[in-house]
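Q: Joint fold for the lines below.
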Amino acid sequence: MYVAVKGGEKAIDNAHRLLGSERRGARDVPEITIAQITEQLKLGVARVMAEGSLYDPEIAALAIKQARGDLIEAIFLTRAYRTTLPRFGYSLPLETNDMAIERRISATYKDLPGGQILGATFDYTHRLIDFDLAGENAPAAPHENRQGLEPAPHVTGLLDDEGLIEQNAAPSDTPPRDLTREPISYPAGRDLRLQNLARGDEGFLLSLAYSSQRGYGSSHPFVGEIRIGEVEVAFFAEELGFAITLGRVQLTECEMVNQFKGSSKEPPQFTRGYGLVFGQSERKAMSMALVDRALRAEELGQDVVAPAQDQEFVLSHSDNVQATGFVEHLKLPHYVDFQAELGLVRQMRREYAATHSDVTLKEAAE
Amino acid sequence: MTQSSPSQLPDTSARRRAMAAFAEATTDELLAALDPIEAAHGATDLRRPEAGLVMLRGRIGGDGNAFNLGEASVARASVCLATGEVGHAYVLGRDVGKARLAAIADALWQASATREHIEATIVQPVESRLSAARSDKAARVAATKVDFFTLVRGEDA
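A: Joint structure:
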């Protein structure tokens, strides 16, 4: 018999009211502001923008506040928000070569045009808790070098003369596929894969990247270049008939170069993996570049033997909003399903007991 | 199709430069410059200011084919002045009020009577503010550039 179950509205209302109160925390502690989050928790904001797939620091910060610091919940809120807005169109491709550099390093070339620029990095810190930050904190003014920066062209262009580094295909006019408009079908092109990875979960990509380094899919990567900085957004407005600048966005770009011994399709050379992420998000950009390269296995004539090389495995499990939805739905009421399964298991146990006379099973007391 | 400008089509690169400044201007900067101009108050909406999304594209490998990176929120507006000039604006963020002011600035920039004023009170000040901020930032970043040196061996000391 099917029994419809209703109820819980009052409990749900009160739970949400309690959530609002708990979110605020102790009332004698000042309430956190959106500006404090965008300015002082910038890397958290960057992660929510990247995986929420929406460049909007204020929305990301508000989502972080609403989610009480749960970044995946904040990403979920951001994704939900973006579905409420109409899309005006597509930007022209962002030109990362023209980036206003905030950080730029290469692990493959010591002396390169534009130099090694460390920027504001956690690298080379000792990872000791800084108890000074527990109180009011007035950091020393940064040093300045008024000579400024020299132009910093992409590192991967430097060895191109010898053909030692694989070349990217020249840009074509074919518009890239868009996974927000059509479901991914396999095999997926590199454009779709990069779109998926750019919004994919940092932790998932980090673990896959790590697995590829540890031997699950051979990879011998070097950081050709990491660069962080602002890039202008250009948009072709139909009503104007020309492209205009909408403002600037901060991006992190990573180019990995991987030693490649060659295959039936390609000569020995360095192949490339690419990562591009909203905001300052170096770990994500590096992971994305490693996974991008791993996913190119088939195209480069390598055997697909490891999880990181398996398109369908990677692309269909990278999205933390989908993942959390499916995992967390298990906590919603499944009373009827479970009753049905109880009946089924009882039935199987009766059959089992009938064919195994040496085993006595306790009959359910009901 | 919207006819964006009357017969004397202004030089596109100059207008693009001005529109980039409007997009980077703060609401206060726009208000301060536009408020004294009478024509700014008579602007009517051709398209109501609205917030939406633009899908940002990157390039595979930094220089290859395009791919869709993720969206950005964008506010846009289109206005028409009593004198007929049409102004448009697309700016990053969801500030539709600012988008409308930027569209008014674009329309006034196209009118010969007010272009000088808009250049002097918005375009130039915003450009110098941005350029100063850019070089301040570049100076701080440049101080973190690595200077490699070769360790001097004992015999040279």
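Q: Anything notable?
A: The first helix of chain B runs from residue 12 to 24. Residues 1-7 of chain B have pLDDT under 50 and may be disordered.
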